[in-house]
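Q: Got a minute? One more chain.
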Amino acid sequence: MKLKINLTLAVLLSLTAAVKAQNVDVAKALVPAEKQVDLLLEKSETATAGDAKLIAPRTLENGQLKLVVGRDWTSGFFSGMLWYLYDLTKDPKWLAPAKEFTHKLAPQQYNTGTHDLGFMIYCSYGNGYRLTGDTSYRSVIIQAAKSLSKRFNPVAGVIRSWDHNADKWEFPVIIDNMMNLELLFEATKLTGDSSFYKIAVSHANTTLKNHFRKDHSSYHVVDYNPKTGAVQWKGTAQGLNDSSSWARGQAWALYGYTMCYRETKNKVYLKQAEDIAKFILTNPALPADKVPYWDFNDPLIPNTEKDASAAAIIASGLYELSGYSKQAKNYRKTADQILNNLTEKYTSKAGANEGFILVHSTGHKPAKSEIDVPIIYADYYYLEALARSKGGK
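A: Always. Here it is, folded:
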């Protein structure tokens, strides 16, 4: 009898240890992450000092640090990372560089030639305003929302994504655009002007209607007739093919509709986020470590590239979704698993990769661009996921 009790206790203790092992040790993960970003900051400050037009790091190209100009869609992620490190560590050493790299983005508040102002301005100025309350940041956020609103077509009910490749599409909208709606929701809260909110809701509703298949996977691109609002084409630019499920696109959709539920409390958005999560997490192509391959339909799986950036976005989205859904425990457990796997298996060796944190991201495989490399937005959403694992924003 005593032996049976001891065995039972041993099993319970082992189960408890297993549960604890699944928890995310944020403090431990931050030690190497801070060292990497210290290096990336040093390299970036040196590089940007030599060319005023280059303002932020993006990736490695042929093993060399690649920086971008302000109008690049990834330009706001590095300053956002610095704000998250300031938030997570409370170390004032991150404050000055966060402000410095945020300020470089100021001209973009007037940029009406891109749909990515949410990425560019809200990840930078938005986090800065959240953490400092600086009223000058507030005005930049509002102006950026005004600029983004100019790309809205009330007939089609959506915000135009790209202005390029007019031979391929007339009024293209990509699933990534869901991420930029947060800027509009914030602008309504800051100003009381409901027009921003209404544009965001219209875009979310129209995208919900036209971007998704019956299995809740998303097309990458939907082309609209700007005069009638009719859908003219559905397909992809960065995925395997027009009918495939590009991994990062599914991640944007999960995150985007979770955020829309937060801002509107419309349960249709919550249901959509849960359905997208189901598609991702029950997909037979999702590997055991839950870091997806770059496209769920690549026939070369498992002999093809992963996308750590998609995994980081999914983890961050699941942490937020766990705060709203009845499936909270499962979502949090999965997010913990993804984040632990990223930390343990997808991080750079100390001092490697010019200071980027994560490895094995895939940007645009069809264009043979940024394949199996570190990419700045992977690092941004990794840090955001670490913050959310603690119950932060």
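A: The beta strands are 54-61, 64-69, 152-153, 158-159, 172-174, 221-224, 231-235, 361-364, 369-373.
Q: Perfect, thanks.
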